[in-house]
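Why does this matter for the project? Reviewers at the last site visit asked to see concrete outputs rather than summary tables. In response, this paragraph embeds two records directly. Each consists of the residue sequence and, immediately after it, the corresponding structure tokens. Nothing has been edited or filtered.
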Amino acid sequence: MGTLPEKEIRSRKSPGERVAPRTSTPVQGYSVSQASGLLPLAPAHLDALWDLVQLSPECHWERKDFAYFLSHPCQLSYGFWEDSRLVAFIVCLFPQREIDVIYLFTHPDERRQGIAQKVLQGVLVRADLRSASLEVSVKNAPAIALYEKLGFSIQRVRRKYYQGKEDAYFMLYTPKPSTRSSGCVNESGSRSAPPA
């Protein structure tokens, strides 16, 4: 999956759609050889995250909002990198063993490939996790299906949650006892066996 020529990127664009060039720029904080797979995000990755989120017409956040969450003392955030290019990310807060998913996004050209599932599973495998919660638009059927597949359940509707106009589901995940093993989580997000 190489970098697409700028001309081809423009040809896929819908009227009014914002599309950023797909480039392979060095990833701050990681060597080029490290910048593949699921890796923790830090404030140094704000530029890559901001470039990616510009592809979302639904995003009403400002750059400073992402900067706040990436520098929060309770932040738990990961990016999914391919060839040193950020293609998906999740920003969470993790106070008192409860994950609050703040933002999950995948590059539009990379959707329906299981990347969002890998990213979300990367935070759900924490051995010390008590629960995880998120909000999702009631109109976002693909995301709702993914969350339910991973064990989230709809708890209630939050009326006019998005921009005071659109309703959201509040969804909750509680790990099953078997998923709370004492094994370690490696960089790819999979669990290794606990030491003998």
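We now turn to the second protein, recorded in exactly the same manner.
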Amino acid sequence: MIVRRIIIVVLALVGGAIAYQPASAQTSDTPSGLLKADIKLSAVHRPVDNGLMVRGLTNLPDGMRLYVALIAPNGTMIESLSTVVAGGAFQSGPYSFHGKQIPAGSYTAAIDSAPPGQQPSNVQSTLGHRGEKLTGPFVKAQREGRRVITTLPVNVP
């Protein structure tokens, strides 16, 4: 296990950057060559414009296109915005409710990746042209290929 971690660090340093790699991204039950998608979310209020930013940490490749929709506790979609993964992270927003601050509470973020054929070439080479190298509980098979489609809780402070 220590040797594997050293190899990962050396490979990351040789590549010139260290990307976010959560512990659950590649586990012993994930076959080699596959990427087990992992996403962790947080919400941050921006006092400047009363907007809410949704931030995510992920092991998805840089350049991957995502859509993040903020869903109110009653199930109403507040807004859906597009974003791109960069350096193991993404940010979406600002979200507001008719220009006003979103009230504190428990919301849901619905995350949906663009279809594999609409992803940049570097993402397609990492995940496969139909997303066939993408796996995990956040991944769903669709007509266009395998995509990240999930909902995660977001607590608005």
